[in-house]
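Q: What structure does this chain adopt?
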Amino acid sequence: MNEILRYQAGQIPSRQPDELAIEEPLEIRVKGKAVSVTMRTPGHDEELAAGFLLSEGIITSWHDLVDIEPCKHDTLGNIVNVTLDSRLAVDFARLTRHVFASSSCGLCGKATIESILKTIDSIGADAGVDAAALLALPEKLRQAQPAFDRTGGSHAAALFTSAGELLVAREDVGRHNAVDKAVGYALLNQRLPLDRHILLVSGRASFEIMQKSLAARIPIVAAISAPSTLAVEFARESGQTLVGFLRGQRMNVYNGAERIAFTS
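A:
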């Protein structure tokens, strides 16, 4: 808990306690090799590691995992070791987080999308959701954000069924980490594929969030804020439904409107 000087116009400044969102590094190791270092909010680190490895194509199901545990020699709790099935061949060259994820990497968007779709199939149009159920999701997500209530500094991601029932919600200082944690929960609890589910994120929809959703076979992705241009292009190529500005009684549908049942 920190002490800050809080000021509001017309009042005398006063010192008050304030809680901040925790941000610390997490190193994910596979076979003793560091495959990612991400800044995250501690908690649900096993889910974060599992979701990350799924989205990067290192694993495809919970059967590939033997164990995820904190490094015994790390006193700060910022390293996790992942043990995979010995029969699983790991192609570390397929890791894409630091190549494709950066908005400033300079790669051609079309080439980036094509490289991912070579290893992950696009999604069919079987899943569906009622527009009213979709509009009700932001409030359900907001009610599942205790860290945001305390700090105002965390992102959130939640998985819902097509009927609008909350499966899991996770918070993190990084929006991509929140998605990894939610997807990792589903993987570790043998809920994959998520082909009858919806992902809702509290901020904007980026290319990387679409990539992670596709790896988990999520057909419908919604965001409280805007999508990026590459996220929209990815949705069109992958066959995913992408909704932005989902707030109040409105939404913008950027792709896949056939999955949403609208009523007048």
